[in-house]
Amino acid sequence: MRGRSKIKRPPFVLDSKYNDPLITKFVNRVMLDGKKETAEKLVYDALEKLAKETNKEVPALWREILEKAAPILEVRSRRVGGANYQVPVEVRPARKVILVLRWIVTTARNKKGVPMSDALYTEMKNILENTGTVMKIREDMHKMAESNRAFAHFARY
């Protein structure tokens, strides 16, 4: 089938502290202008501060944050009979991670006048408490999918 081939992803170097691929992806998402050490410092500061506060291990805490903020449904545009429909579909696991990382970094960067590590810490803490901008984006996505569930029969798997 067209468009269903597996993508060969190049291997990437795991982060030096936790050897966790999800934390590595987050560091790479936070990184600007190739300054990886700066991005690592920001991410590690935020995660360690939150882990100290919640008395949990950093990798387990990070996975919990990703699970809580990950969307279940999203809408995809589908053209049927000359009309465009917003069709609700399940979010693939890899896309869930990418969306959460994007949302956390974007909302943290939009907080002006706050150090990035503090903004990341605040966003992750809000996710654990089911509040904040990231959770609002997730809920809006779910509401959109719910309101368009009448078009679910247009989804092809």
Q: List segments where confidence is low: pLDDT < 50 over at least 5 consecutive residues.
A: none
The CATH superfamily name is: Ribosomal protein S7/S5
* Mean pLDDT reading: 92
Number of strands: 2
Strand order of the largest sheet: 1-2
Tell me the Rg in angstroms: 18 Å
Percent strand: 5-15%
Secondary-structure element series: HHHEEHHH
| Category from helices, strands and their pairing | mainly alpha
SS summary, helix count: 6
Taken from the alpha-carbon principal axes, the silhouette is: globular
Quaternary assembly: single chain
Helix content estimate: 40-55%
Q: How is the main sheet built?
A: 2 strands, antiparallel
Domain count, please report it: 1
Q: Quick one: CATH class?
A: Mainly Alpha
In whole angstroms, the N-to-C terminal distance is: 12 Å
The CATH topology label is: Ribosomal Protein S7
Named CATH architecture: Orthogonal Bundle
Question: Outline of this structure?
Answer:
This protein is mainly alpha-helical. Helices cover 55% and strands 10% of the residues.
